[in-house]
Design goal:
The protein is built from 29 helices and 31 strands. A hairpin with a 4-residue loop joins strand 6 and strand 7. Helix 1 packs antiparallel against helix 4 and helix 14 runs antiparallel to helix 15.
Length: about 950
């Protein structure tokens, strides 16, 4: 620990000191000389540049014979502190001009500069600018440049030399001093940071080391639950984690040891034999309570031997036994007699050696059982015989060749065979079938290999009846461990099997129809898909949904619906193969898993057969019911390699089949998937459409063609979704009808109509038609909204027309009749929308409180083209008028259509011929006259 502590505490300090020394060395031996070299290279360039510039200036002034200008130029340049001298020499090396006037007229040799005349002469001969280092170690640089005056002059020489002396010490000192200052400041700051970090680090190390030491002491003192739980990756965290791991292992081992000790102590306390352990020196090391009770006068802890317990003769005998055990290192067993409480008793004794980790015997364990307890054993044997004869389990005793030598009464009762009939026969003489024979062969092999067998068999009673039995067979061995026979115990578990199968059916079978349930279907689907992947084959999934089953359930009751589902299940089983898996997922949803290599044509034929079978009339409770079904088909792996995706695609194809008109099937394709994805987005967006103010109303006028006036307006819902843009009512209304959103939408429309009437003078007094979905008649929320708004004066219901489709009349006539009667009582008028597209709506006209019939636009559009549509329109008008009901025709777009409808007495017309749906702000400014003028124009 001290070595580790030293490393953790002082490594960072050693690192800081070493880094400081390294930085100082780096500055002195590398950075400083390097900076000097760089500064010297820069000085060379600067001297060359300065000398070259002075060369030009001086040559110019020499040509002008301007010696005073030369002197000024030199004085100006020597203002730089590092330039010590500037000299202009003639060809004889006499000073012609200098930065210090005292040098003028002297010869070069008299100036005692750091370069000699040979350097000047060398430059004279080369006639080029040259920079030299001084000959003395005075840290001087000299720039020598030839001067040409181009002819005879006052000096009397054609060539001269300019000498520039620069003191590098002065030039470098300021820069190097700044670098040194910066370096020492940085070094000082680094030292402060390092010391602070070292002190903090040392404090953290000390605290964590103290925690580790404290935890180690607690663990050593037995607090094995102690944990450090350090976080981090440093050495201390690793040590702490190692200590935690070690403590955990020690704690587990301690618990295991305690548990083993308790188990051993319990065994020793409760075993009916005397158990004691002696060392190789013959001294008792341990003895159980039975031994202590028999020899209570002996203190085991005081190093007693057998000679302190028994007589010498008996003790010698036991000592010889101990020696034999130690010599052979094997167990021995003997029947012995020795004196206990002054009474000679008979014991069966087993002695065996105990070995240490080096496989050396260190002690001898003895177990001595009082044979006087054999009397109790005989009593137990009698009890066992009684049990054998009276137990409800069948018991068979066999010899070593597995031939029956004895059976109990329960065997005779269960199998019907008597003891005499069973004697000498093989155990399985009453096997039932090949499957049981296979199990019998496994049984014989297990008995031969292991000496025992347990399992379940199908057996046969003497009467021929088969039954299930749970069998356990064990071998009987003698003292030499030789098999002398077998004993078999069995139970009749037929009722248990029946219960298990019932539970299995409950778990994997539909309780109502007996078909596979959803869980079983998924299990089969997974299993068949794995097999199909291995074999490279396909299979099909048919997703079946009953059409209009909910209506049957609601109108005739759930009991009737359940009986109908049972009949549907029976027909599905008749329409499919035995190898196909027919399941009920729940409600009125069924699936058929078609195994084997399937084709589109084959699945289409199967789907058509199922539709035909399920569409045939059902006769339940003396009632004839006709329903249909829609089927979606998906094929593995074409439509999905994942079983969940495959089932989802089959479901999507089923919904597509419903959209095509129900009572048909559809194969999955990815365009269906795209459409379903859009439907999902529509469903999600509908939930927030009201909150996001995405709805608005437009109003389409209804016109009396005879008077040429507007008689009212129909409120039409428009949706501009933030996510999807403009969505058609034909697309989102069916989606809304499948959820509670239709109630929210209808509630919003009613309130929006009331609100819009407050903002429009035209709408304020006009009759406005509001469409109520057929799904709305399942509840009364729309009626409650109308009633409450009418009562508080927010909406005059007498100026409202409620439009309902024929579907509402057909699906739930009684409920629809009741609600329409209630709204009629408030003063509203009732119109049947899309008249002529339903199943049998004509029979309801005279029974419902109807004011208007709206002829579907599909009939109006073909007026003038299809004589049948003309006849239908004319008949509807005549029939409605005969019943006192007015007629509104919608979808009129041409003058010919309007003329025909007007000539046949149609009361009101609605369509693009008169006006498209109007935005609220256009309603007040619209008039039929303006529209007519626009058309004429």
């Amino acid at each position: 620990m001290s070595s580790l502590s030293f490393t953790l505490r002082n490594t960072i300090l050693f690192f800081i000191v070493s880094l400081s020394i390294a930085l100082v060395s780096f500055n002195h031996f590398i950075l400083g000389p390097q900076f000097k070299t760089v500064l010297q290279d820069t000085a060379y360039k600067d001297i060359a540049a300065t000398a070259s510039r002075l060369q030009v200036s001086i040559e110019y002034m020499l040509k002008r014979n301007d010696l005073s200008g030369i002197t000024r130029e030199m004085l100006v340049n020597t203002l730089h502190e590092e330039i010590k001298y500037l000299l202009l020499l003639d060809a004889q090396l006499n000073v012609v001009a200098a930065s210090q006037q005292a040098y003028v007229g002297n010869t070069f040799n008299e100036l005692n500069l750091g370069i000699d005349a040979d350097v000047i002469n060398d430059n004279w001969s080369k006639k080029t600018l040259t920079v030299y280092s001084g000959i003395d170690e005075d840290n001087m640089l000299y720039g020598v440049v030839p001067i040409s005056i181009g002819g005879e002059d006052k000096i009397g020489s054609q060539w001269g030399v300019l000498v520039l002396e620069v003191d590098m010490g002065v030039r470098q000192s300021s820069i190097l001093d700044k670098i040194d200052d910066f370096f020492w400041q940085a070094l000082f700051l680094l030292g402060l940071i390092g010391v602070f970090f070292w002190l903090s680090f040392q404090k953290s190390i000390n605290r964590r080391l103290a925690t580790i030491i404290s935890a180690a002491k607690r663990i050593a003192e037995g607090e094995l639950h102690t944990r450090l739980a350090f976080v981090g990756n440093d050495e201390l965290a690793e040590i702490a984690n190692a200590i935690d791991f070690m403590a955990g292992r020690i704690e587990e081992n301690h618990k295991e040891l305690v548990s083993r000790h308790m188990e051993l102590d319990s065994i020793l306390r409760n075993i009916p034999s005397m158990v004691y352990i002696k060392g190789i020196d013959g001294k008792y090391l341990m003895a159980n309570q039975r031994f202590r009770k028999a020899f209570s006068q002996i203190d085991i802890a005081s190093g007693r031997t057998v000679y302190d317990v028994l007589s010498r003769e008996e003790a010698d005998e036991f000592t010889r036994y101990d020696a034999t055990v130690l010599e052979t290192e094997k167990a021995i067993s003997k029947r012995v007699n020795f004196t206990v409480n002054d009474e000679v008793q008979h014991f069966f004794m087993v002695k065996f050696p105990l070995f240490d980790t080096t496989n050396c015997a260190y002690a001898i364990c003895t177990i001595a059982t009082d044979l006087s307890e054999q009397e109790q054993a005989e009593s137990v044997l009698n009890i066992s015989k009684s049990i054998f004869e009276n137990t409800r389990e069948s018991i068979v005793v066999m010899d070593s060749k597995r031939m029956i030598i004895d059976v109990n009464q329960s065997f005779e009762r269960i199998t019907g065979f008597s003891k005499e009939e069973a004697f000498g026969k093989d155990l399985r003489f009453y096997d039932a079938g090949e499957a049981s024979n296979i199990e019998s062969r496994k049984m014989r092999k297990s008995l031969f290999d292991n000496g025992y067998w347990a399992g379940e068999l199908v057996s046969q009673r003497r009467s021929g009846e088969e039954y299930f039995e749970r069998v356990s067979i064990n071998s009987i061995v003698n003292r030499e461990n030789e098999i002398t026979g077998y004993i078999g115990i069995s139970q009749d578990i037929s009722k248990e099997k029946e219960s298990s199968e019932s539970l299995l059916r409950l778990a994997f079978r539909d309780a109502l129809t007996g078909l596979h349930n959803r869980e079983s279907f998924k299990n089969n689907l997974n299993k068949i898909s794995e097999q199909a992947k291995r074999d490279g084959i396909s299979f099909g999934v048919l997703f079946i949904d009953l059409d209009f089953f909910k209506e049957v359930n609601d109108s005739l009751g759930h009991g009737f619906g359940d009986r109908l589902l049972v009949s549907v299940a029976d027909r599905l089983l008749r329409s499919t193969r035995v190898v196909d898996v027919v399941s009920r997922l729940g409600g009125d949803e069924f699936t058929v898993l078609v195994t084997g290599h399937v084709t589109d044509a084959g699945l289409a034929v199967l789907a058509s057969q199922i539709i035909s079978e399920l569409s045939s009339p059902y006769y339940i409770d003396d009632q004839e019911i006709i329903i249909s079904c829609s089927i979606g088909i998906a094929i593995f792996p074409r439509d999905g390699k994942d079983v969940e995706l495959l089932l989802k695609h089959a479901d999507a194809a089923m919904y597509h089949a419903k959209e095509l008109g129900r009572g048909r099937f559809s194969f999955f394709d990815f365009s269906i998937n795209e459409k379903n994805q859009r439907l999902i987005k529509i469903k999600q967006s509908l939930r927030s459409a009201i909150e996001n103010s995405e709805y608005r109303l437009v109003y389409q006028p209804k016109v009396d063609p005879h008077k040429g006036i507007i008689t009212g307006y129909e409120a039409l819902l428009r949706w501009n979704s933030q996510l999807l843009g403009v969505v058609s009512p034909a697309e989102f209304i069916p989606v809304a009808e499948e959820s509670v959103e239709i109630e929210k939408i209808t509630d919003w429309v009613i309130k929006a109509v009331a609100r819009d009437r407050q903002h429009s003078e035209v709408l304020k007094n006009a009759n406005i038609a509001i469409n109520i979905s057929a799904k709305q008649f399942k509840g009364e929320s729309w009626l409650s909204t109308l009633r409450s708004m009418h009562q508080v004066g927010d909406l005059d219901v007498q100026s409202i027309t409620i439009e309902v489709t024929e579907t509402a009349l057909i699906d739930s006539f009684d409920i629809t009749f009741e609600q329409l009667t209630a709204v009629r009582a408030l003063g509203a008028t009732i119109a049947i929308d899309d008249f002529g597209t339903g199943y049998s709506s004509l029979s309801y006209l005279k029974r419902m409180p109807i004011d208007y019939v709206k002829i579907d636009r599909g009939f109006v559009q073909d007026i003038g083209i299809d004589p049948d549509d003309q006849t239908i329109v004319q008949t509807v008008i005549a029939m409605s008028h005969a019943l006192g009901i007015k007629v509104i025709a919608e979808g009129a777009e041409s003058a010919e259509q309007v003329a025909f409808l007007e000539s046949r007495g149609c009361d009101e017309i609605q369509g693009y011929y008169y006006a498209k749906p109007l935005e609220l702000h256009h309603v007040d400014g619209f008039s039929l006259h303006k529209k007519h003028v626009e058309k004429v124009g």
